[in-house]
Design a protein that fits this description.
Largest sheet: 8 strands, parallel, barrel
Shape: globular
Helix content: 40-55%
Number of helices: 12
Radius of gyration: 18 Å
Strand order of the largest sheet: 1-2-3-4-5-6-7-8
Strand content: 5-15%
């Protein structure tokens, strides 16, 4: 299996909706072109930021195929494909056409709160079934359970050809540093949080799967590139330019913040699907003020 390089800035692509809540494929096409023109390194389709739980199976298939056709091999694509029913995920892997995708991003099982052994066995089953490499996704704030450094490293060493990276969104620097320090040489640690991407790269992370990259792909990918090249002074300048926005984008939840930002920039309608709702007016005004200053 060819080694997939996910170094740099990947964008966790949103799903734009029209006022009637149907998918706005025209806006999606514009966003994809904007990302690629701006020099991003890869695109993550149907992740958390895409409001994937609110899409039907048919809509997920449409988005998956539409983005693949639009990108047409210009940048690597990663598909969000995971869940808390291991047999169901394995079956989905068997039925899904992954020919246009370089890897899948698979979240730690949520809601059932498995043990570390359960998490390990879940990913072991996925590794044996997946035709493409796997990026583990640890996001305890959403799943209710943290995948420890020990479990991540055990998976990385036991399945070196299949489990190639982890998207770490625990915010636990000690844990992430421990993974970086003890991981196999080729295993990639990717930031799952825009706000701590710069410090994580200084520790040895290879980049980020970014939310803010939807709106500022050129600037944020430049920050990531500078940091990876060791130009920390210039990378830090860009990082500090965005610090206020990092917190504002998540104050009313994700992707409400970034959709508000993209709406203010004229890219999309400010529409989400329930149970998610748009940002409060006060947040919208603050985001617009920051945008004008930027």
């Amino acid at each position: 299996m060819a080694r997939v390089n996910l170094k740099g800035m990947g964008v966790a692509l949103i799903t734009p909706f029209k006022e009637d809540k149907t998918i706005d494929f025209q806006a999606l096409a514009r966003l994809v072109e904007h990302q690629i023109r701006s020099g991003i390194d890869f695109i993550v389709v149907l992740g958390t930021t895409a409001e994937t739980p609110t899409l039907t199976a048919d809509e997920r298939r449409q988005v998956r195929d539409f983005v693949a056709q639009r990108v047409n091999g210009r940048v690597p694509l990663v598909l969000g494909l995971g869940g808390n029913n291991t047999m169901g995920v394995v079956e989905e892997l068997r039925l899904t056409d992954l020919s246009a995708y370089s890897a899948i991003l698979s979240v730690v099982p949520y809601y059932n709160k498995p043990s570390q052994e359960g998490i390990y066995q879940h990913y072991a089953a996925i590794a044996q079934a997946s035709p493409v490499p796997i990026v583990l996704y640890n996001v305890p704030g959403r799943t209710g359970v943290n995948m420890t450094a020990e479990t991540t490293l055990r998976l990385a060493f036991d399945f070196p050809d299949k489990i190639i990276a982890v998207k770490e969104a625990s915010g636990n620097f000690t844990q992430i540093d421990d993974i970086i320090k003890r991981k196999p040489v080729d295993f990639m640690v990717i930031s799952g949080d825009d706000g701590i991407t710069f410090p994580l790269i200084t520790l040895g992370a290879v980049g980020v799967i970014s939310v803010i990259g939807n709106a500022f792909p050129k600037e944020f990918s430049r920050m990531v590139r500078l940091a990876l090249e060791g130009d920390f002074a210039n990378a830090l300048l860009i990082h500090h330019k965005f610090t206020e926005l990092f917190s504002l984008l998540f104050v009313d939840g994700n992707p409400a913040g970034v959709k508000c930002l993209l709406h203010a920039m004229g890219y999309i309608e400010n529409e989400l699907r329930l149970p998610l709702v748009p940002t409060r007016i006060t947040t919208y005004d603050k985001i617009r003020n920051v945008l004008e200053r930027l």
